Structure formats: structure tokens, C-alpha cells
Automatic annotation (TrEMBL):
The keyword Transmembrane applies. InterPro entries: DUF4013 (IPR025098). Keywords: Membrane, Transmembrane, Transmembrane helix. This is DUF4013 domain-containing protein. It comes from the Archaea. The chain crosses the membrane at residues 20-46, 74-94, 116-141, 169-193, 199-217.
Amino acid sequence: MTQRLDDAIRAPFDGDSTDTLVVGTLLTLASVSTPVLGVLLAGYAVRAIRRRARGDGLAAFDDWRGLAGDGVRVAAVTLPLHLPAVGVVALVGLDRTLMSISSLAHFGSPFLAPDYAAVAALLFVVVLELLAGYLSVAGLVRVAQVGSLRGYHVGDVVALARDPGFARAFALACVVGVVARLAGLAVAALPFVGVPLGAFVAFVGLVVAASVLAGVVPTDGDGRLTVSTATRSTRTLSEG
């Protein structure tokens, strides 16, 4: 795992990566004001996972149609995972859900009682979103592996999510994401260059996290990604 992390940290700077880093930084900047561009970043994450799994260098920003297609596929398999949490919030009410924590200030008051039902709903939403986030990353990795929705099956995603190797890679990718986020916020406070530097750090974090996740994608002896059923996928990833 240590060696894998070392390789992942070097991944954004493999070879002639200047053009890719510049485009990635600009795209990250643009996605802040135009969130739909996040689809392209998701597509790039898929491409980065594929290339790193094969042992290739940094993925380039070319074939934009393919990049967008991968991003749309990621959105198609991950957005439905967040619908249960949205449903709970819609049922309870957004304002009531957001105010639930502050209502705990009335604990012990003889006049006002905390909204325990809303607090429970909020905690349930948090649990649902944590699970959705975990499965979303597993879905992204599976999209990178199969390359299309025709070979995508929920059972394979669940099998991947249950694999200890994926759990470790996910945890490490989360650490990378948190560190990149904190570093990005720190440099963003700098005058003039802070915002673009923050976007650069965020994109580098994306590449490093994708490289970490690539370590759980099985390949054959020639470095080609293998596509397998849920049972075989679990066994292969565990052994890898």
C-alpha cells in the first residue's frame, strides 16, 4: 500500500504532464461556477483509473466526447444512490431537517422540546449519504473497469464494495481528498494566485485519488483490464 501511495503521488507529474495539469486546473475552476462540467471531471477520473490500472502514465484531455460519455455513465449509476436521502428530506421537509440540530438547544426546557423526529431523520440522511458515497466510488471504479453500462451490474458493485482491498483504497482516497481539500483552502487564501492554485491542488488530488483506486482494478498478464462477474471479481480483487 505504501508503494502504491508513492506511485499515486507521483502520478500527476509523470512525463510531460504540463498541458494536462493546466487543462485540469481550468476545468476544475470552471466547474465551480458551472457544475455540469463536473461530468467531464468524473469522466476524467474514469480515464485516469483505467490508465493507471494498466500501468500507463497520466491520462490526457483528448477525445472529449468519450470523456463526457464516461462522465454521463458515472452520473447515471451514482445519482440514483442519493435518491433515498433526498426522499427522506422531502418527506420531513428541508427547513425542518436543517433546523433539527439547533432544536436540541431546547433539551430540558419545560416550554420547548427538541424535534427528535427531525434529528433522527437527519442522522438517517447522514448514514444514507455515507453509504451512497461509498457505493458511488465503487460504481465509478466499476464503470472504469467495464467501460459501458451494458456490462454494469449492481451485484458487481456490491461485491467490489465488500472487498477489503477496495475498502482500504477508498479510505486512502478519502484521506487524499481531505488533505487536498484542506491544502486547497489554505492556498486559496493567497492574493491573486490563490484561487487557481486551489483548483490546481484539487485536480492533483483527483489524479492521486484515482491512481489509488486504480490499484483495485484487476488486469490480465498483458496489463489489460479484466471484466468478470461479481463472484470472480471479488476473488480477483482480494487476491490482488
